[in-house]
Amino acid sequence: MARQRRHLAGLGIALLVLMAGCSGVSGTLTDGDAGSPEVTETNDLERSIEVATQGEASAEPDRATVLVAVESSADDARTVRGDLAESDDALRSALYDWGLSEDDVRTERYDIRQTRETRPDANRSEYVGVHVYAVSVDDVDAVGEVIDVAVDAGADGVQQVRFGLSDERADELRSEALGDAMDNAHAEADTLAANADLEVTGVYTVSTTNVRTSPYATTALAAEAGDAGGAPRTGIEVGDVDVTVSVRVVFGAEQA
């Protein structure tokens, strides 16, 4: 898959710190020359440049999570529970037959409750239930097909599709973003030093202040269960996943 990498310009927190030590004067009076003390001078001048900046890396996702829901309504909670249980068996069987494992299909939310409209009425009751499944898919190109399998098996809706990264790919992208952030920090420190008649001598400290992953998410409109003649199938648009890191770097500096 194509991989993109974007560089952010160094962002605007940059601080030039100048810490100047003071010259000390100490003297000792002697009997021979009470008016002329012995003078010792010290001059300790330290300079540093502190930069806070960001780096970013982007790539196409290599995994996806599909949220599909099964819903039911009835006059009593027991009937709703039974409907959800039957739908659960059908949905899981279809997804397992397609090729997913039990670990790939987990419950995201399960809820049965009386509707707000009938709650105050003792002579009328209606219960609604929903079972939301999080279905993990390693092949992002197969997301539309998984949605169709779920809908054909009885799923009533697809709430969301989230595209993300595997742990290994996320670590690789984080390293790329950190490298980008350090490149930006060095460039910004060099610019500050040049404008302050200084020269960067090295790095004192580096800290990572924030790492943020922005997965691509989209709502999906699932196709209705198709017949033998073939119904239109579900197509999903895939976008990049972005990883952004923030670093704070303190550079040593000396007079140019």
TrEMBL record:
**UniProt GO BP:** DNA damage response
- Spell out the Pfam families in the cross-references: SIMPL
**Which InterPro entries does the protein's record reference?**
26kDa_periplasmic_antigen, SIMPL/DUF541
Gene3D superfamilies from the UniProt entry: Protein of unknown function (DUF541), domain 1, Protein of unknown function (DUF541), domain 2
Q: What is this protein called?
A: SIMPL domain-containing protein
